[in-house]
Model the fold of this input.
Amino acid sequence: MTMTHTLTPTADLATDTDDVARLVTPDGERIADAELDRWVADVDAAALRALYRDMVLLRRIDTEGVALQRQGQLALWPPCQGQEATQIGTARALRADDFAFPSYRETGVVYARGGKPADYVLAWRGEEHSTYNPFDINTATPQIIIGAQSLHAVGYAMGIQRDGTDQVAAAYFGDGASSQGDVNEAMVFASSYGAPVVFVCSNNQWAISEPVSVQAKFPIAGRAPGFGIPSMRVDGNDVLACLAAMRWAVDNARKGNGPAFIEAVTYRMGPHTTSDDPTRYREKDEVERWKGRDPLARVEALLRAQGEFPDDFAASVAADADALAAEVRAAAQGAVTRAPITVLDNVYAEPHSGLDEQRAWFGAYLDGFVADTEEAAR
Done:
């Protein structure tokens, strides 16, 4: 499926939520889509409940991350509330031996790929050896350099070609990253070499404080065909549509047809990170509108309408969320942080005079904090 547009550019086109493919409306009504339906024909009520459970657990991880940061246990946290359907739907379409390249906000991708409680929080404490081994879960370390992971994904996909296997690489990035040179260069290489890679753009409407309408007058999915890459624009708050779109894109790449591009239109309900105050740049009415499009609520509404949301299921999901939150909290609070001076350990294999000077200077600097604390205590 290739997106094409012949309309006059306007800011509204980039943020329009009507011009998207979807299978579940915000009210929880299952609707038909000629392109998407065949990709989720196997998804029954049990599978839909599993997707709902994933999203609930992801939201709980995210809530715990914010709380831990506010309590001083983490230095920073990038919330993903509101984007659960995009992350879970697309990640669950990947095969175990595919390789994902997430940005810093894709907590749900790490979760779906098999991440453990410590994997979500220790990196945000700055702990040594705090991230997972990428090859344990076939997921790269979340990238904080905007858009850089798109190049990594294409490079990996070109390696897949040379290995002669049918794996697929998936690059995740936001609407802001779509303006980065790295992303556009990655798309040039992917198209030129027919690399088996899927680009997943989470259009959450805001690149920190810059609205997507500033950098995109057309839907972002419309850019991909210019690179010779088929694309699809889906409702990023519809987990079923995201699953279907990703299955289409992965199938396209796995069959040797080259890259594909998905724009998932969603919304960042919280701040860009916990150091951000979104009330300074966006209106309350906008946030309220998006609350009505909540990805969890629409799946629950669909299952209830089908008589497939029993009380015991709701209770078990809530219990699982509580248990996971406790594990995440314990991982952060139980971490043993090394003394700051040890940052200079193991830099060189042999003694180095320059390092000795740095150690002396840094040690004196740290001692100054101790002296100030003791003085204040007198």
